[in-house]
Specification:
mainly alpha; 3-stranded antiparallel beta sheet; 27 helices; 5 strands; globular
């Protein structure tokens, strides 16, 4: 029997008018689910939208409101794309009108430059998203018609091989000539850093698990990208000023965390306890911002673009390239989350590259903390960027690919997406998740400083038994890592100080090392102010590693080092490569890929050493190309 229906909604956006008789037979000849529900007297169950009740109200007033509501929702649903684009177009027109008026009203000050930079970046980002949003069919058609025949044919492959070799020769020649002309002639002492790089490459090649399988294309371009970035940042004044500007803006941006900290703890308390109530709130604030950017898709877009660039230039697989790019912004436990679907099927070489990238870089959240110490933000940012290709290069030298990777170019679009439903939830989730990091930082600082004090007390006691004073872990590291500091191009008088910092970072963590470096940087500023104020009458001397200022009787604990050595130290310490991080990384990646725990445990120490050397290689380039501005 036909079933008479009133204005019941069968599915979202569809209405069945009175008198319509549905086909109760499905495609297979059996009654369809829709027909069964209608015959059972529950047509409202068909609607999958929990926000509306499909049973119309009884009274006329409510029925009128109900019908109007349904029509409005139906209209909005069917025209939603057009409405959204129209609203976006209006917003863009209003913004560009505002932008044009601001440029006309006042141009030339820092605020106008900031507005211009942000607008240009936003336009480029929007244009890139439009290009990426181009349908896959159109992109595939363009590839099939224009590029694929040139690359896949025999002649194309031969031409690509020749171009690749010529490009390597040109890049090598340009870098070599630049170093000879601009470094060797004016600062020949900096060339010691080139010897340091060569030593690391030879050692890692000798102790590689398969020297014959090393892919030198990846190794070459990893170091070449480091040099190119370093030449822009350290040798070109415009590049230096750009990164200095970015660093200043980052430091200014992070100061907004003071508002929440002051509200929570009060200003006097913050001034009395800077680390607990200033540094840790910065971590919470930055982590929240990263979570919001991840929800908006900005993080995924930037990481995807950088990952494609690394994969294209170095010949690495999508998963390890995405991880290396992600490590520039997030930590060693967060970056693998972006590629978690690939971890279980990765080759051992790929897993080693993922771990090395985590050890060789720092998270953006703790970068803010180091900036608050007084460490130069521009060098911290450039160190994170330069260490990404270095980590891939040294990883592929230490653990070359011996298996067949399952990664394909389509994997770039398979990054994990945010699970939050709106921006407020994303901010809340980021702030909540940061509590684990804040707690980890706090307890590690307490634990390792206490442990370091105990170890030093024990070593001092042992040294006094033999008549040796000042026998501490720092004293041992100052000689143990002296060659490492020397081959980075550090001034000889500062090598022991830098060696101490490297030892502290390796055996405790980089937080403590950066704290001590910040003290040394502050001492350098104090000494510079002292000598400029007293001029020729400014007398000072060294006393057991500390600096004593005669005129003011001030003691600068920890001494001072040259500005060049400060820069090299900033690059050398910029990584999570220490023994304490091994357990953290194993726990995080083991939870993401339980089936690969044995492989991870087998390679983690080698990866930690590789990450450490990646930081050293970046410091070597900084020591080679350092220029005073």
């Amino acid at each position: 029997m036909p079933v008479e229906l009133k204005a019941y909604q069968v599915s979202k956006g569809d209405h069945i008018n009175k008198g319509y008789t549905p086909d109760v037979q499905g495609e297979s000849g059996r009654p369809s689910d829709v027909a069964v529900r209608i015959q059972n007297g529950s047509p409202g169950d068909v609607d999958d939208d929990p926000g509306y009740d499909d049973d119309p109200p009884k009274d006329h007033c409510s029925l009128c409101v109900y019908n109007v509501q349904k029509r409005i929702v139906g209209c909005l649903t069917s025209q939603w794309v057009i409405i959204k684009r129209a609203v976006l177009l209006v917003i863009l027109c209003l913004y560009f009108a505002y932008f044009g008026y601001c440029m006309y009203y006042r141009f030339g000050d820092e605020g106008s430059i900031r507005l211009l930079v942000c607008t240009v970046f936003g336009v480029l980002l929007a244009f890139s998203l439009l290009v990426i949003g181009w349908t896959k069919k159109q992109r595939r058609s363009l590839w099939q018609r224009l590029f694929k025949p040139c690359v896949t044919s025999k002649a194309g492959k031969r031409a690509m091989a020749i171009i690749s070799v010529l490009l390597k020769l040109v890049v090598f020649a340009v870098i070599a000539i630049y170093i000879i002309v601009d470094v060797a002639i004016d600062h020949p002492e900096n060339l010691i850093a080139v010897a340091g790089q060569a030593i690391y490459i030879v050692i890692f090649f000798i102790f590689s698990i398969s020297p014959g399988k090393v892919k030198w294309h990846t190794v070459f371009w990893g170091f070449a990208l480091q040099y190119i970035l370093a030449l822009i940042i350290l040798r070109q004044e415009w590049g230096f000023q750009i990164f200095k500007y970015i660093g200043d803006r980052v430091g200014e941006f992070l100061q907004h965390s003071d508002a929440g900290a002051i509200f929570m703890f009060s200003d006097p308390l913050i001034s009395a306890h800077i680390f607990a109530f200033t540094v840790l709130p910065i971590v919470i604030f930055f982590y929240t911002i990263i979570s919001i950017l991840y929800y908006l898709g900005v993080m995924q877009f930037i990481v995807r673009v950088l990952g494609r660039m690394l994969a294209f230039s170095m010949g690495t697989t999508p998963a390890e390239s995405l991880n290396a790019a992600g490590n520039i912004f997030v930590g060693m436990t967060e970056a693998p989350l972006m590629i978690s679907p690939f971890l279980k099927d990765m080759t051992s070489s790929e897993l080693h590259a993922v771990m090395t990238g985590g050890f060789a870089t720092i998270a953006g959240s703790v970068l803010g903390a180091y900036v608050s110490f007084g460490v130069p933000a521009n060098h911290l940012i450039s160190a994170s960027v330069m260490s990404a290709p270095a980590a891939l290069a040294i990883s592929k030298l230490a653990y070359p690919e011996t298996e067949v990777s399952k990664s394909t170019s389509r994997d770039f679009n398979k990054m994990e997406k945010a699970k939050e439903r709106n921006i407020i939830e994303a901010a809340t989730a980021g702030a909540t998740a940061s509590t684990k990091l804040v707690a980890a930082i706090a307890v590690n600082i307490i634990a390792f400083l206490s442990l370091l004090n105990f170890v030093n007390a024990t070593l001092v006691w042992c040294g006094e038994r033999a008549g040796l004073k000042g026998f501490t872990l720092e004293f041992i590291c100052s000689y143990l890592f002296f060659p490492v500091a020397f081959f980075m191009g550090t001034d000889v008088s500062d090598c022991r100080k830098l060696a101490e910092l490297i030892g502290i970072k390796t055996f405790t963590n980089e937080f403590i090392a950066y704290q001590k470096l910040a003290t040394i940087i502050s001492n350098g500023d104090a000494l510079a102010n002292y000598t400029s104020f007293y001029n020729d009458t400014a007398h000072w001397y060294w006393d057991n590693g500390n600096v004593i200022l005669n005129n003011t009787s001030q003691e600068l604990l920890g001494g001072v080092i040259s500005h060049k050595s400060e820069v090299i130290a900033t690059y050398a310490l910029c990584g999570f490569s220490n023994f304490g991080s091994i357990g953290i990384l194993l726990g995080a990646m083991g939870a993401l890929a339980p089936s690969r725990r044995r492989d991870l445990a087998r390679m983690v120490v080698r990866a930690m050493i590789s990450g450490t050397v990646a930081c050293f290689l970046t410091a070597c380039i900084a020591g080679l190309l350092y220029k005073e501005y």
